[in-house]
Design goal:
Layout: H1 7-10, H2 12-30, H3 44-47, E1 90-92, E2 105-110, H4 116-124, E3 137-145, H5 150-164, E4 167-173, H6 179-193, E5 199-204, E6 207-209, H7 211-218, E7 227-232, E8 260-269, H8 270-280, H9 289-300, E9 312-313, H10 321-324, E10 329-331, H11 335-346
Parallel strand pairs: 2-3, 2-5, 3-4, 9-10
Antiparallel strand pairs: 1-4, 5-8, 6-10, 7-8
Helix pairs in contact: 4-11, 6-8, 6-9, 8-9
């Protein structure tokens, strides 16, 4: 069935281009430039050096507890530390999604406000709620407010929300250092509006996902206090301002992180959403989203669960149907790449050895 496209939506390419330009300018002003040398090869450590091994995790003193407070942070808050806890408002919400059904899997996809084209491709590919026969999947996109063109994009996003009913947006700025706020928004939504979901999958937009293999291989029968993905152990914060992953001691004083799942894609049992959201109200939030989730799990006394090597791939692999059919996630697949490989991946006439 074809949907009539509003004239406002036709303006999106222009707005997106302007938004991208504005975001580049804003990031140039706010984020340090990565000038440190990178290691060769496809390993993600070469791209994101914060995952290089260091000493085993240990706490250096207990973090200050701020409790479940909803007031503005103190003026001494470091600029890289996202304001939290804070009474962020939902500008776009879908509070009734789980009233008539309880999804087996809630899919939370991190996206930018102006990326309507990317969202449409994800809706047609791995984000299709009917992609796994017999499994109830609920898809939601997570976004903040564009730091330059927030007001201009508002009407476009409202129309997209009315058309697809799958956008969640709160009134924080959509920046790299606020990715933690996006994930916490998703945790908040699940805990308040869909607490009975069996599982939640958090995924970035630039991944290839095989939800069918994920469900069959890892999620049956349902579990509690469960999280898995590509696990990083014995890593620590980067203290050099040369990296965009810079985390100063004022934001995170410890020299190591507890074990955590890589941010491009990880899955956890539905009960953990409320627990992570609750404990996040008592911990100083840091600007590294995946590391902070690991900190929350440590505070809860919950361990990450290992997955077979390579099932969650943190670097790009050349597409091969049989190989991808035995993987959950492959990083660095942009939505445009999905248009090239997804039709072939869906074909049933390709036989793979089990």
């Amino acid at each position: 069935m074809k949907c009539q496209v509003s004239p406002r939506l036709l303006l999106l390419p222009v707005l997106a281009a302007l938004a991208l330009l504005g975001l580049r300018v804003q990031r140039f002003a706010e984020e340090p430039v990565t000038t440190a040398p990178l290691l060769p090869g496809p390993d993600r450590d070469a791209v994101d050096p914060r995952h290089r091994p260091v000493a085993a995790f240990q706490w250096h003193g207990a973090p200050d507890s701020r409790g479940n407070v909803t007031v503005k942070p103190a003026p001494t808050r470091h600029p890289l530390q996202p304001p939290y806890p804070y009474p962020y408002r939902f500008l776009l919400n879908e509070p009734h999604k789980c009233r008539e059904r309880t999804p087996f899997l809630v899919l939370l996809v991190v996206t930018e406000p102006g990326d309507m084209a990317g969202r449409n491709i994800i809706r047609q590919t791995w984000g299709n709620e009917s992609s796994v026969p017999g499994v109830a999947i609920l898809r939601l996109f997570l976004l903040g407010v564009h730091p330059v063109f927030g007001q201009e994009l508002r009407a476009v996003l409202e129309e997209e929300s009315l058309l697809y009913h799958d956008l969640l947006q709160q009134d924080f700025l959509d920046t790299y250092n606020n990715l933690t706020l996006k994930t916490l928004m998703g945790m908040e939504w699940v805990s308040k509006h869909c607490p009975n979901a069996s599982y939640v999958m958090k995924a970035d937009r630039d991944v290839f996902l095989n939800l069918g293999y994920l469900v069959r291989r890892f999620l049956v029968p349902p579990k509690k206090n469960f999280m898995t993905g590509y696990i990083y152990r014995n890593t620590g914060p980067l203290r050099s301002k040369a990296y965009k992953w810079y985390v100063p001691p004022e934001v995170y004083p410890n020299t190591t992180y507890p074990p955590y799942c890589g941010g491009p894609g990880y899955v956890f049992s539905g009960d953990l959403a409320g627990k992570i959201y609750a404990v996040a109200q008592t911990l100083p939030v840091i600007n590294m989203e995946d590391s902070f989730v690991g900190i929350c799990l440590h505070a809860l006394g919950v361990s990450v669960t290992g997955s077979p090597w390579g099932v969650f791939n943190m670097y790009r692999l050349k597409y091969e149907k049989c190989r991808f059919s035995r993987l959950v996630m492959v990083h660095h697949y942009q939505p445009q790449d999905l248009l090239k490989v997804w039709p072939h991946f869906q074909k049933a006439n390709v036989t793979c050895q089990s």
